[in-house]
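Researcher: Structure prediction, please.
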Amino acid sequence: MQPQDVAPRPSASSADPVVDVERAEAALVEHYPRLVRLAYLVLPPSLGRNRRVVTAHSLAQRALPRGRASAAAVIPAQAKGRDGDPGYAFVRLQVLRTALEAGLPLRFTALPKRSQLPPLLPQVWGLRLFPRSGGADELTLDQRLSALSGPARAAYVLRGLERLPDGDVSKVLAAAGVADPAAALREADEVPAQYALLASPEFDPCALHARPTDLMRRRQHGKAALAAAAALAVCGALLGLPGDGWAPDGAAAPVYAQNPAAEAALDPAKLTRVAPTAWESAARTDFSVWPARGDLTGDKALLRRALAVWARPGESVQVSATPGTPSGGPAGPPQLLYAGTVDSAHVVILYDGLRIARYAEPADGTKGAALDFARVDGADRAEASALVLGRADGNVRYLTAPWVTKAVERDLMKPNAGAMDLDPVKGITAPMAGPAQQTGACTSWNVLQLTDATGTRLLTDLGELIPAHLTTGRPGSAKEASGAEALRTWAPYACSLGAVRSAGVRSVNAWAYADQSLPDTSGTAQWVCTRAETWRGGGTRVLAQFHTPGGAYGAVAAKAENVAACGPKDPNVLAGVLWKSEAGGWYLLAAGSRGTSSIRATGGISATAQGGRLAARAQQGAQAELKGTLADGRTISGLR
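Model: Predicted structure follows.
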C-alpha cells in the first residue's frame, strides 16, 4: 500500500449542526454492522484478517463523541447518509478518519495515534477470527483493493457501500483528513465497479469463523508460567473443598491440546488405512474402501503436518471449501487415501466420512501450503470414482478409484471424436486439459471417461476436488452420459457447465424434453433442460436451453435456482424464447415437457396453444409470462 499524507482535520464552524451523544449512540447501535464493515474494508489488509476484524470493531465502538455534545462538521454529503441522519454521518466520519489513520506508517519522529496500535478492546484470547470465505470474485476484489492506498480504498467503499456520488465522496474524504481526495478517486477508478460484492460475507466482520491460535507455541510459552504458578496451585488444592473440589468445568474433558480424542485425530500412526482389496467384498463402494496410495504414505512428518494444518491452519495457509462444507478439524482419526509427490508438490488426501481434505505443500518447504475441502457424504460408486490429485499449467491429474479399469479423455463438444487414453499408473492418470482453466471462446470441453465392471461414465472438472457426474435422460430415470446418443445430447450444452463452477455440484443431468418445428420451415429445434444437483442439497441450478439446427451451442432461454422443476420430484418444465427466423420474422417459441396439455402467454404477447408447443408472432424485445396446464389439471409456470 502506498502511504498517503492525511491533512489536518477541518475545524467546525458555528453553522455546523451539533450532534449530541444520544443521537450518535442511537445511530451507532442501529448501523453498527455497516460501520464495522466500512472500517474493515478501509483498514489496510497488511494487518491480517484477525487484527482487521478486531480493529474494525474497536474503531466503531470508539466513534462516539467524548462529551455531551460535539460540534463536529456534518457536511452535506454526510447528511445524505442513512436517510440524512446527522448522528450516523458523525460516527461514519469518525470511523473513516480513524481507519485511515490506522493505515499510516509509524514514524519515530512522532507519537503513534491510538488507531495505529493494536486495540485494547475488544480482545479474544486463544482464537483467530476472520469473516466467512467468499467466492473467486470476492477474492479478486479483495486483492485489488489491497493494492490501493487507504484514501483510494475509502473512496471506493464510499461509492459502493454508501452509494455517494463522487462530489460527496470528495467532501467526506476531505472532512476525514485526506489531503488530495481527487487523487484518491482517480486511483479508485483502477478497480472495476463491483459494488454489490462489498455486501458479501467475505467483507462482513460481524459474521465470523473462529480458529485456535498456534497451540504448540502457546504450550511452550506457558511452561514458564506453569512453573511459577505451581506453588499457588498446590496451595489452592489444599484449600479446596473435599469431594469433587472447585473445578469449574465439572466432567468436561481436558483442554484441546490434551484431549485424547483430539490427539488421536492428529496422530499419523492412528490414521485409518484400508486394504487394497477391501472394495471387492465391501457392502458399499465409496471413498471408505479406497486404499492408501502414493510414494509418501510412510512419511510420518508429512502426515503430521497435514493433520496439524487441518486442525489449525495458519494465516499463511490458503484454505478453500466447496459451499456447505465445514472446514474444522477431524472428529477422530481420518482415513488416508493418498500421500505422495504430484508434479512439484507433496500432496496428502484424507477422508473423514463427510469430507475429502487435500493438503498440498511445495516439495522444498511448507511456505505456500494449501488446504482444500469437499463434501462427499452419500457418494455412490459413480461419484466416488475419482478425485482431483493436482492442477498445474491448466492441466488436471486425477486419482481414480481402485475399481476403475480404464480412464480416457474426450471432448464433450465433439461426440464423434475419439478418446485419448490417460494410462493410469497405480490409480494416477496422466495430466489432461482441464475445462475450468479455459479462457476466451469455449471451443472444447474435456471430460474424464471412466470404465469399470459396471459400465462407463463421464465426470467433469468444475474447479473443485470432486468432479461432477454427468447423466442424461428424464429425471428419475437418468442414465450415464457415455453412450453415442447421450454424447450427442450433451455436445451443444457442454459450455453451459461453466455456469456452475465452484458451486459444490454433485451431478448434472441433461434432458432433451421437447422438439419443436420452427416457423418459416427453418427446421426442428431441440429443448434441453440441464439440472445441477449439489452435495449440500440446496443451491440446485436449472437451465432451459434452446438449440436450433446447425448451431454449435445451445442458447440459455431460462434459468432458476432451488426449484423442483426438471428434477426427480417434479420433472415438468416449461420455457420460452424470443427467436428470429431466417426470413427476418420474430416469434415467441415455448415448449413444455411431456404431459403439458396447453400453454398460454400473457403480458407483452398474448397467445394460447393446445399441446406442449407454442409459436406466436412477436415484436423484437417483447416480454411475456408463460403458464402451462398439465394433463392432470395442475398449472406450471415458465422458468425465468
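Model: Residues 21 and 30 are 14 Å apart (CA to CA).
Researcher: Thanks, that helps.
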